[in-house]
Amino acid sequence: MNDLLLKSVRPWGDESVDLLIRDGRIAAMAPHLTAEGVEVIDGKGHIALPGLVDAHTHLDKSLLGWPWYRNEVGAQLLDKIDNERQVRQALGLDAQVQSMRHALRSLAFGTTLIRSHVDIDTEQGLKALEGVIETRRRLCEVLDIELVAFPQSGVMRRPGTIELLDRALALGADLLGGLDPCAIDRDPKGQLDVLFELAEKHGKGIDLHLHETGELGAFSMALIFERIRAHGMQGQVSISHAFCLGAPDWQRTQALIDECAELGVTILTTAPASREVPAIQRLIAAGVPIGVGNDGVRDTWGPYGNADMLERAKLLGLRNNLRRDDEIELALGLCSYRGARAIGHESRRLKVGERADLFLATGETVAETVVTHAPRALVISHGRVVARNGEALLPTP
Amino acid sequence: MNDLLLKSVRPWGDESVDLLIRDGRIAAMAPHLTAEGVEVIDGKGHIALPGLVDAHTHLDKSLLGWPWYRNEVGAQLLDKIDNERQVRQALGLDAQVQSMRHALRSLAFGTTLIRSHVDIDTEQGLKALEGVIETRRRLCEVLDIELVAFPQSGVMRRPGTIELLDRALALGADLLGGLDPCAIDRDPKGQLDVLFELAEKHGKGIDLHLHETGELGAFSMALIFERIRAHGMQGQVSISHAFCLGAPDWQRTQALIDECAELGVTILTTAPASREVPAIQRLIAAGVPIGVGNDGVRDTWGPYGNADMLERAKLLGLRNNLRRDDEIELALGLCSYRGARAIGHESRRLKVGERADLFLATGETVAETVVTHAPRALVISHGRVVARNGEALLPTP
């Protein structure tokens, strides 16, 4: 069932080999393989790379499939949050449809594992989560999706949100989210206490958006560290964005980074060009697990996101001034198998015995494939062919 | 001669019109135009945008057409400078061939005006300049190229360079270049004195690379300002990169920016994600002219550059956190007609009477065209069709 022999591909840019896929795993990798009764695909000498991992996105927010959204939103975070709820309601957005469009585009680009936040708020309740859970169900054989119950509009400032988050975790969200306990909720102790209690109650991990910069972010992070210790949640907490780890005060920042490493806190970054960001080489040196994400795709927040994690590897390289080939390959690793490990999933390198999640792309070298975010000729996920020439083989709504 | 009627295009994303081009200029722009005996092209409702302007690149450095260059270069600026001279010699690079490849790729992306630095040093003398001048001659009917005699390896630290720069300006370089008078030459007074004297002697402008950050860059900039006043070169000097204008000390930085405005100093940026950079909206508010460039394209410095100024507009937007449609259109303007004005060239907006330098691209809105750096269906330069579907119509060596 679903066995494949992929001829003439160059894993991670190396010499050409054949790749035998059985039961969703790589069964053999060598030149001139043969296998009877198995579908054969000609890889045409393309580079084969491990399935991409989008460790931070928002499947419920995309406006893919809608006319161009003209962005005239204000500059503050709360402007964007309030605007989004209004637009969502005015358009009557269906999170199931939108998340399916977004997920299939990701898959067509070679992403086989997604961690997505989903908005939970007192206006729409669990509606978006139910929609994205349905998308996850429909795609479960070809795409791993884990979901974070995300209080985008705040926790303490909107009574009723806590109860919704509780129900979201019971309904099937894999992790509990949170957002700027100082800047948005203005009650850091309140928000973090309730979130950690709720996560412990459900035995689930936490992934917090932390946009707060400098000392404010460092303060929130210290409160998070305290609660990780108090609840014994070492290795179960991720912090998304973590701009405060890009602050210029070396010593102050290093102490925070070292504590992330000690507590097994995963840092998830989108490597934005316009913000302070944690330097990935510095995090790696300290032993902090790193994942990378595309964040929103064509939503009311901004038009740049396009679901392509190979382009994200390029942006990660540009942001971190990675110019050498080995550095660019590192960026790609973080956007694929290393990112998977950082969010607690099985690695998916191109090795015998590992999962057959991979894609074929043009390019002379791995670095060229990244900097051109080269067209993807073929995507294989969970051992099945799921996309060809940039188009998912499943119908897009 | 070369007259064209371009039917059904949307200038800057507006309603569809026809565009009559005569003698290299836009002669009429209205719905349902007719013209006898004139070639008619169907614009298919594509967005029409003004020709792009690459105000800072290096036509002589690209490795386009060569096998992938595996970058293993050291981290310092001097590592990269020394490495480049070695590679250039080892490969026997021909600046005429390389600049033609680079220029035609730019043209295929819709760029119709380029300011290029060309390395002048005591190893290769004027050889690269001669090659790029030949490329300029061959392309003069379709692409405006202005050349900066650029002492990449330093001025004072390599005796004989000054004489070469003198000859370069006599040979046909349009401007005189320079580079980090402190960090590279370690003799800021010496370098800047000789450069300003040489520029005055030839009656030519100056375009200086200034990578120096913080106080060091501010110091070099102050020396440049002094000499602009002493030589009466207001409005004739550009500073490329100018990272020191991205320094966090607001008051100190504002004083430098205001002095740029007062002296008519144009700031040229590539909007790198990994460096301090001048904020474009701040420069605009102060009245500083701004141009944008791609910098190197696939050279020994790094693999990211690809000659596409529409993608550069996107990177400019990402670096400056431009999310609104009007902000993204501003970024595009800086990469096209505003950039042309900033480096002393005729504007090229899509207006009757202006130059017929334009391209057609897919997209629902201008902002979408930018964020997707959409495929270019057609490029018209100096009134002629020069590229279709991303390929220049002239033969690439």
Automatic annotation (TrEMBL), chains A, B:
Matching InterPro entries: Amidohydro_3, DNase_TatD-rel_CS, Metal-dep_hydrolase_composite, Metal_Hydrolase, Metallo-hydrolase_Enzymes
Amidohydrolase domain span: 93-387
Record GO terms (molecular function): hydrolase activity, acting on carbon-nitrogen (but not peptide) bonds, in cyclic amidines
Family matches, as PROSITE patterns: TATD_1
This protein's name: Cytosine deaminase
